TrEMBL record, chain A:
PANTHER family: EXOSOME COMPLEX COMPONENT RRP45, EXOSOME COMPLEX EXONUCLEASE RIBOSOMAL RNA PROCESSING PROTEIN
Bias (Acidic residues) ranges: 350-366
Gene3D superfamilies per the UniProt record, alphabetical: GHMP Kinase, N-terminal domain
Keywords: Cytoplasm, Exosome, Nucleus, RNA-binding, rRNA processing
Organism superkingdom: Eukaryota
Ranges of Basic residues composition bias in the record: 432-443
Gene Ontology molecular function terms on file: mRNA 3'-UTR AU-rich region binding
Pfam families: RNase_PH, RNase_PH_C
Positions of the UniProt region annotated as Disordered: 345-368, 409-443
Gene Ontology cellular-component terms listed: cytoplasmic exosome (RNase complex); nuclear exosome (RNase complex); nucleolus
Organism: Microcaecilia unicolor
Name under which the protein is recorded: Exosome complex component RRP45
Coiled-coil stretches noted in the UniProt entry, renumbered to this chain: none
Family (UniProt): Belongs to the RNase PH family.
Automatic annotation (TrEMBL), chain B:
Annotated family: Belongs to the RNase PH family.
InterPro entries according to UniProt: ExoRNase_PH_dom1 (IPR001247), ExoRNase_PH_dom2_sf (IPR036345), PNPase/RNase_PH_dom_sf (IPR027408), Ribosomal_Su5_D2-typ_SF (IPR020568), RNase_PH (IPR050080)
Residue ranges with Basic and acidic residues bias: 1-15
GO molecular function: RNA binding
Residue segments, region Disordered: 1-36, 57-81
Assembly and interaction partners: Component of the RNA exosome complex.
Name of the gene: EXOSC6
Name of the protein described by the UniProt record: Exosome complex component MTR3
Transmembrane regions: none
Matches recorded under SUPFAM superfamilies: Ribonuclease PH domain 2-like (SSF55666), Ribosomal protein S5 domain 2-like (SSF54211)
PANTHER family: EXOSOME COMPLEX COMPONENT (PTHR11953), EXOSOME COMPLEX COMPONENT MTR3 (PTHR11953:SF2)
Cited function: Non-catalytic component of the RNA exosome complex which has 3'->5' exoribonuclease activity and participates in a multitude of cellular RNA processing and degradation events.
Subcellular location: Cytoplasm; Nucleus, Nucleolus
Keywords of this entry: Cytoplasm, Exosome, Nucleus, RNA-binding, rRNA processing
Biological classification of the source: Eukaryota, Metazoa, Chordata, Craniata, Vertebrata
Automatic annotation (TrEMBL), chain C:
GO BP, one annotated term: nuclear mRNA surveillance
Domain (Exoribonuclease phosphorolytic) ranges: 31-166, 193-256
GO cellular component, one term: nucleolus
Keywords on record: Acetylation, Cytoplasm, Exosome, Nucleus, RNA-binding, rRNA processing
Record-given protein name: Exosome complex component RRP43
Molecular function (Gene Ontology), one example: mRNA 3'-UTR AU-rich region binding
Annotated organism of origin: Microcaecilia unicolor
Domain of life: Eukaryota
Family: Belongs to the RNase PH family.
Keyword RNA-binding recorded: yes
Compartments in which it is found: Cytoplasm; Nucleus, Nucleolus
TrEMBL record, chain D:
UniProt GO MF annotations: RNA binding
Homology family: Belongs to the RNase PH family.
Protein's GO biological process: nuclear mRNA surveillance; poly(A)-dependent snoRNA 3'-end processing; rRNA catabolic process; rRNA processing; U4 snRNA 3'-end processing
Domain Exoribonuclease phosphorolytic: residue ranges: 21-152, 155-220
Gene from which this protein is expressed: EXOSC4
Protein name in the entry: Exosome complex component RRP41
Keyword Phosphoprotein: no
Localisation: Cytoplasm; Nucleus, Nucleolus; Nucleus, Nucleoplasm
Length: 443, 267, 276, 245, 291
């Protein structure tokens, strides 16, 4: 489904508001929406909410052989999915331009900036390394996916714990969490994307655009930075012309925003750690505001299970016992048998006819002037061969089943048998074997 | 990175046990053969396809079994391209995974694609495509067991299926294959053993419209001299002519069955 | 006239027949179409069988190959079943990768293998942690006229019974496998699962072995897989109209009878191709 | 990073260039006869080919047409033998798709698309040999090809990559310098107005250095501009002589 | 443009011309257009060549990479063909549009090289069942002006001639573990014997006659053509009918004969150019796309 276009009136309203330095949700120009981070019960699972944009991050890992050109490095794979659940405008399974752009931005922001020590993921050089897979799912789309996704990715990675391994000789042992405490990944720094939206050819600038603002903007600039004010990625997009000064200004703002967000992330991580240590409850359910869920208040519907067994017994006793009489299969030929009969089907008459082996070379049918007499030829000359075979008695592989299949047509057969005999005699040997084979495959 | 979730997947890599087989006794020396192997053909056996045909050739210990189905003419899916004036013929040729000795064949290999195209180009001259503007006709060929000359049988089977589907054609296309042994002797309608012989000199598959004496498909590899190649083409054509009556009979029979006239010969 | 009525009101057409306790093709409600089994006809496969249920035709070919056993189960081999519904068998299928129905059927067959333990995966291991058999069971539908699940299950069982694996020795020195193609032995078949499918009409009537037409008109289908000890291996009822417990019990009884029939049929065929 | 010294104490780079020196640029317009515009560029060992078709009617579904401007359609593709290790696919992977997207953005901004409503302009670039600065070579080649096709633009679009090592910005990185993993920035600039058509940066660079690097990059882009301008003028002169004017 | 559309009148005009042995551009039926061949145009490949045949423009790059031999052929290296019909040649080829034609050409190349003598694959084996060279022959189609198969096969031959694979030594230490040492001397290399590498000659049937090296316009009036691959000695290593038409048997024999004759001539002149270029050595000015 295509997103319904924004009406001109809505557009001009939005732009006018931006010109006046106002935003629909009451934020200031450089304000972020509320960021909320919650963790799942498992390590490496989190939901990041940016306003109402929600991204679920999930990290998993497995042991794989490394890439040939980098034998001592682990592999990190990022995958962001935009499901129709987040917005009806997204189609499933199609690599849209937006998706490619976002995925590459994430890769560049997190992988190229080397925020994770990939060498620490190596188990046996050239043979086994950890492959870390970061799956991000957009659950709800209300603008600025990339910022939310980058936060979710780094939070999930920082929260994740992988199985511990030990190496003894060639043997690699992977310990379950019960055997050994899982180990966190070593993270060098935390790059976070900050998006800037430009309006009216770069005259106005907003931080963290919402979906409506995204639809009227002229261009975007994404800057990824860590709290040490190191820029990890810059990406301009959309068809606007920027000036150097604008870029520099944005990078200043990004520095401030990143520091705030990093603090928030660290607080959230510590908080979660504390809860887990104390053995408190964790998981998404805990982070859901109770008052929204009305289902908890519904009383349980009573299910009466007392007499289930008796009921079942009753049904069983009343049911007809399976019929004892079983139809007897008919063996057509070696390897072919049938049960049931009657009923015409297009495959069925095959079986009746299957004895009709056409061996035109053997019959010399090419030179045969009676070529026009088709339908019955084969049957008859088989009968001819049949006779022949018993006469000559060459290689009889297994003749017992053959008769069952072949339908002889007495009136005409004799005529043809006669006409075919001279050509037949030389070829009988091959035919006998052949016919048997044909029958094996009852097509 | 994401794998194919639409099939049930086995291990990443598996190897054919034949590779580890102990060496067997030497094969029987080849002999020149100028006669095609016996052939069994039957048209109109599938209940769902509009036209269908089954061909089985070869003897002893299994033969080449080919099943073909045709559907159409129906409305063309693609409206662009050069197909407006006549129908588009879409052909698919493939082997069942277990159709060949040796390793299990994968789906959509390069060879299958090449042969699908060759099949299409060999059938196109025979089908009166201009009678079905803006339409498309599908032909599928599935090789159930390949004991040599599978593509030649596929050509015949496909054209039978088209005829069985009632598509207008100029003639039935007959396929015939030939292989040349290292000694230079020509073997008509080779078995898989002949085809797979190391250092075999080459293989040729020819498609012929016998009534019009027009060659509508030719596919060959290996090393040939001009003379041997011409000789091979001639032999293949002869082979096609010999198979032609069988296919004709098969069609007549299928038609009779269709109109369900009780068996009373035209004589 | 009847043909016209059938095209315009297919459901009503069927109902008239069903009222008389018979079906347009002349069968009774509880009657299977003639079932033909042909085993061992594909010589290039290690085991094969062709099953026909009326017009529905399914071919199963099994190829055995070597592979390293899975890391989490070093004493097991693999069975890889795949059902292919090519456009050849019915115009309802598109060419290309397996469609929904083929995926569902493949999964169903995989479930049958897993639940019934038809062949123990341990039997397929050659050398612990080193080498194991992979059985690629490719089931191709050649003609689709309904009830492919029954046909596929039967074809799979037939083909598995036909499998002859060459003997394998591991060469001590080289560590490589040595295969002797001359000495072949059959697989050990532990269970004989047989499927029986029903189409449910108008929420009450159940027809056994539905044709393609009946499947499309039915309000629901149900497939029951039984083994020789009268145990349920798989019971598949994908949505559709509800069925009462009594009705279900009748279906199961029918499935038991069907199991006996098919078992006998397969045994007879296998017997006939046994080298004497 | 480790091992290789990318900038010697004397201020020379691996290939003997100075920090702000470009590689040798050679270019030719009008390489192919069948396309509407085409150009070939060599920047050191990076070789790129650009072909332009259009403006023409929209190909495929008409719903893609824009009522007020032309659709710019790009494809970035790398010859399978262009890289040190053979590439499996010429295009269609994530990186190439991203590059395609970037090219599209760059030229949507630079071409006066509003002059050709409801039509389409195809720009296809092909890397024949990759030795760093692929994006930049493509942009430069595409600029020439668009000019060859006679499609009006706001200005030349000149692109150049810049790295940053030991507090010195290095312009026009070659493959070895790129692979070292230091910060790198690609800039596509409209030289006259100093407007940035595309800015892309990777790896880690401290914010304080951003300005320095940006300055070096825009200087390099202006240098590229001088070369491209020369090529265009020579080409036009050549064509004029051929036409006998 | 991969193909053109012609009006009926244009087709008749071309067919009549062919009948008179005078084609649109003044050639006779068995004349080729001018072929430009240049080798060693992409420096990071093991061998490369660019071929220009009329408006057809082909770039072939060959890369030799180390790999493991195929299980069934442990004593041989392998050759992989890949044809990229890039969007440069025709907008229809954008995205996956060129794949169909690309695989068709690649499959044809596989077929024509599928014999014992075309290339000595045993020479590409380094150590049995362990290491071998895999030659990736990548063809890039830059412009289509008809007769792709011929131009590509000429390009492949020229690039194979130009290919230099570094020599390899296998060092074995006491424990039996092997190590592979690549020679870093650029002159210490293996060269391939291209004497038996075939060229494809496409014979297009127009009217009652057949022409070689058809242009796009001529291809548009061709119903059927025959690809014949010929070695320099006149051996035929493959044949294939393409197009929707059929051929009568007599014309096939004629076409085989013409193909063989023309093919031998093409090989002679190609070898001449390649030898000449080789003899110039380093003095040769590389033109590439700048000329």
């Amino acid at each position: 489904m295509r997103e319904p276009p924004l009406s001109n009136c809505e557009k001009s309203f939005l732009l006018k508001a931006i010109r006046e330095g106002k935003r629909l949700d009451g934020r200031e120009t450089y304000d972020y929406r509320n960021i909320k981070i919650s963790f799942g019960t498992d390590y490496g699972c989190c939901i990041v909410e940016l306003g109402r944009t929600r991204v679920l991050g999930q990290v998993s890992c497995e042991l794989v052989p490394p890439k040939v050109n980098r034998p001592t490095e682990g592999i990190i794979f990022f995958n962001l999915e935009l499901s129709p659940m987040a917005s009806p405008a997204f189609e499933l399974g199609r690599q849209s331009e937006l998706l490619i752009k976002l995925n590459r931005l994430l890769e560049r922001c997190l992988r190229n900036s080397k925020c994770i020590d990939t060498e620490s993921l190596c188990v046996v050089a050239g043979e086994k390394v950890w492959q870390v897979r970061v799956d991000l799912h957009l659950l709800n789309h209300e603008g600025n996916i990339i910022d939310a996704a980058s936060i979710a990715a780094i939070v999930a990675l920082s929260h994740f714990r992988r199985h511990d391994v030990s190496i003894q000789g060639d043997e690699v042992t992977v310990y379950t969490p019960e055997e050994r405490e899982p180990v966190p990944l070593s993270i060098h720094h935390m790059p976070i994307c900050v998006s800037f939206a430009f309006f009216q050819q770069g005259t106005y600038l907003l931080v963290d655009p919402s979906d409506r603002e995204e639809r009227v903007l002229d261009g975007m600039l994404v800057i990824a930075m860590n709290k040490h004010r190191e820029i990890c990625t810059i990406q301009s997009s959309g068809g606007i012309m920027l000036l150097k000064e604008q870029v520099l200004r944005c990078s200043k703002i990004a520095g401030v925003k990143v520091t705030e967000i990093t603090e928030l992330i660290q607080k959230a991580l510590e908080n979660d750690k504390k809860i887990r240590k104390e053995g408190g409850k964790c998981g998404f359910v805990e982070s859901m505001p109770q008052q929204w869920i009305t289902a908890f208040k519904v009383e349980k519907a009573p299910v009466d299970v007392t007499d289930v067994e008796e009921k079942a017994e009753g049904i069983l006793s009343r049911a007809e016992p399976p019929a004892e009489a079983v139809s007897k299969p008919v063996l057509w030929a070696t390897g072919t048998a049938q049960i049931g009969e009657g009923l015409e089907s297009s495959w069925r008459d095959m079986e009746e006819e299957e004895g009709q082996v056409e061996d035109e070379d053997d019959e010399g049918a090419i030179d045969d002037p009676t070529l026009a007499v088709t339908q019955n030829i084969e049957m008859e000359d088989i009968s001819g061969k049949e006779e022949k075979k018993s006469d000559v008695d060459v290689v009889v592989l297994s003749d017992s089943e053959e008769e069952e299949v072949i339908i002889l047509e007495p009136e005409e057969s004799r005529i043809h048998t006669r006409s075919k005999h001279p050509a037949d005699s030389s070829a009988t040997k091959t035919t006998a074997g052949k016919k048997k084979r044909k029958k094996k495959f009852a097509l | 990175m994401p794998g194919d979730s639409r099939r049930i997947r086995g291990p990443e890599e598996s190897r054919c046990p034949l590779l580890y087989a102990l060496p067997e006794s030497p094969q029987a020396p080849e002999q020149a053969r100028t006669e095609p192997r016996p052939l069994y053909a039957r048209a109109g056996l599938l209940s769902q396809a509009k036209g269908s045909a089954y061909i089985e050739t070869g003897g002893g210990g299994g033969g080449t079994k080919v099943l073909s189905g045709a559907s159409g003419p129906r409305e063309a899916e693609r409206r662009d391209g050069p197909g407006l004036r006549g129908a588009r013929l879409v052909c698919e040729f493939r082997w069942a995974p277990f159709a060949r000795l040796g390793p299990r064949c994968g789906v959509g290999t390069a060879l299958e694609r090449e042969l699908s195209l060759a099949l299409q180009e060999s059938l196109e001259p025979a089908v009166r495509l201009e009678r079905y503007p803006r339409a498309q006709i599908h032909v599928w060929v599935l090789v159930l067991e390949d004991r040599g000359s599978a593509f030649a049988s596929a050509l015949s089977a496909a054209s039978l299926a088209l005829a069985d589907a009632g598509i207008e054609m100029y003639d039935v296309v007959v396929g015939c294959a030939l292989s040349r042994g290292p000694g230079g002797c020509l073997l008509l309608d080779p078995s898989d053993r002949d085809e797979g012989r190391p250092k075999s000199g080459g293989c040729l598959t020819l498609a012929l419209m016998p009534a019009l004496n027009q060659v509508c498909g030719l596919l060959c590899n290996g090393e040939w001299t001009e003379e041997s190649l011409s000789q091979a083409v001639r032999l293949c054509m002869e082979g096609c002519h010999r198979l032609y009556p069988v296919l004709q009979q098969c069609l007549v029979r299928a038609t009779k069955r269709k109109i369900s006239v009780p068996q009373s010969g035209p004589a | 006239m009847a043909a016209g009525f059938k095209t315009v009101e297919p459901l009503e057409y069927y109902r008239r027949f069903l009222k008389e306790n018979c079906r347009p093709d002349g069968r009774e409600l509880g009657e299977f179409r003639p079932t033909t089994v042909n085993i061992g006809s594909i010589t290039t496969a290690d085991g094969s069988s062709l099953v026909k249920l009326g017009s529905t035709t399914v071919l199963c070919g099994i190829k055995a190959e070597f592979s390293a056993p899975p890391t989490d189960a070093p004493n097991k081999g693999y069975i890889v079943p795949n059902v292919d519904l090519p456009s050849l068998c019915s115009s309802r299928f598109r060419p290309g990768p397996p469609g929904e129905e083929a995926q569902v059927a493949s999964q169903f067959i995989a479930d049958v293998i897993e639940n019934s333990q038809i062949v123990l995966k341990e039997d397929l291991c050659i050398a612990n942690g080193k080498l194991a058999w992979v059985l690629y069971c490719d089931i191709i539908c050649l003609d689709y006229d309904g009830n492919i699940l029954d046909a596929c299950t039967c074809a799979l069982l037939g083909a598995l019974k036909n499998v002859r694996l060459p003997s394998v020795k591991i060469n001590e020195e080289t560590g490589l496998a040595e295969v002797c193609m001359k000495e072949k032995s059959p697989l050990k078949i532990r269970k004989n699962p047989v499927a029986t499918s029903f189409a449910i009409f108008d929420d009450t009537l159940s027809l056994v072995d539905p044709t393609a037409e009946e499947e499309t008109l039915a309000t629901g289908t149900i497939t029951i897989v039984m083994d020789e000890d009268d145990r349920l291996c798989v019971l598949r009822k994908p949505g559709g109209s509800a069925i009462s417990a009594e009705k279900l019990q009748t279906c199961i009884s029918r499935a038991i009878t069907r199991h006996k029939e098919v078992r006998k049929l397969l045994d007879e065929v296998i017997e006939s191709i046994q080298p004497k | 990073m480790a091992g290789l010294e990318l900038l010697s104490d004397q201020g020379y780079r691996l290939d003997g260039r100075k920090a702000v020196e470009l590689r040798k640029i050679q270019a030719r317009m009008g390489v192919f006869a069948q396309a509407d515009g085409s150009a070939y560029i060599e920047q050191g060992n990076t070789k790129a080919l650009a072909v332009v078709y259009g403006p023409h009617e929209i190909r495929g579904s008409r719903s893609k047409a824009l009522h007020d401007r032309a659709v710019v359609n790009c494809q970035y593709s790398m010859a399978t033998f262009s890289t040190g290790e053979r590439k499996r696919r010429p295009h269609g992977d994530r990186k190439s798709s991203e590059m395609t997207l970037h090219l599209k953005q760059t030229f949507e901004a630079a071409i006066l698309t509003q002059l050709y409503p409801r039509s389409q302009i195809d720009i296809y670039v092909q890397i024949l040999q990759a030795d760093g600065g692929n994006y930049c070579a493509c942009v430069n080649a595409a600029t020439l090809a668009i000019m060859d096709a006679g499609i009006p633009m706001r200005d030349y679009v000149c692109a150049c990559s810049t790295g940053f090592i030991e507090d010195t910005p290095l312009v026009d990185l070659c493959y070895v310098e790129e692979a070292a993993g230091g910060p790198q920035l690609a800039l596509a600039l409209l030289p006259k107005s100093e407007q940035i058509a595309l800015l892309e940066m990777n790896s880690r660079l401290h914010e304080d250095h951003l300005e320095k690097v940006l300055d070096a990059a825009s200087k390099a882009c202006r240098d590229v501009y001088a070369v491209l301008d020369r090529v265009v003028r020579d080409h036009v002169q050549e064509v004029c002589t051929l036409l006998g004017e | 443009m991969a193909w053109v559309r012609l009006s009926e009148a244009e087709k008749v005009y071309i067919a009549h011309g062919v009948q008179e042995d005078l084609r649109q551009d003044g050639r006779s039926c068995e004349d080729y257009r001018c072929i430009e061949v240049e080798t060693d145009v992409v420096s990071n490949t093991s061998g490369s060549a660019r071929v220009k045949l009329g408006h057809t423009d082909i770039l072939v790059g060959i890369k030799a990479e180390m790999g493991t031999p195929k299980l069934e052929r442990p004593h041989e290296g392998c050759v992989e063909f890949f044809v990229d019909c890039s969007a440069n040649a025709a907008p229809e080829f954008e995205g996956r549009g060129g794949e169909e034609l690309g695989t068709e050409i690649a499959n044809t190349l596989y077929r024509m090289f599928n014999n014992e003598s075309s290339l000595d694959l045993k020479a590409l084996c380094i150590s049995q069942a362990e290491h071998c060279w895999i030659l990736y022959v990548d063809v890039l189609l830059l412009e289509c002006g008809g007769n792709l198969f011929d131009a590509i096969s000429i390009g492949v031959k020229a690039a194979l001639f130009n290919t230099r694979i570094p020599k390899v030594r296998i060092l074995e230490d006491e424990e039996g573990s092997k190590e592979i040492e690549l020679s870093d001397d650029p002159y210490d290399c293996i060269r391939l014997n291209v004497e038996n590498v075939p060229c494809i000659i496409t014979l297009s049937k127009i009217g009652h006659r057949h022409v070689v090296d058809a242009t796009l316009q001529e291809e548009a009036c061709t119903l059927a053509s025959l690809l014949v691959s010929v070695t320099s000695k006149g051996l035929l290593t493959g044949m294939k009918k393409v197009g929707k038409g059929s051929l009568d048997p007599e014309s096939i024999f004629e076409m085989i004969e013409t193909g063989k004759r023309v093919g031998k001539a093409v090989h002679v002149s190609l070898q001449e150019i390649l030898n000449k270029e080789e003899s110039l050595g380093k003095q040769r000015q590389k033109v590439g796309f700048l000329g």
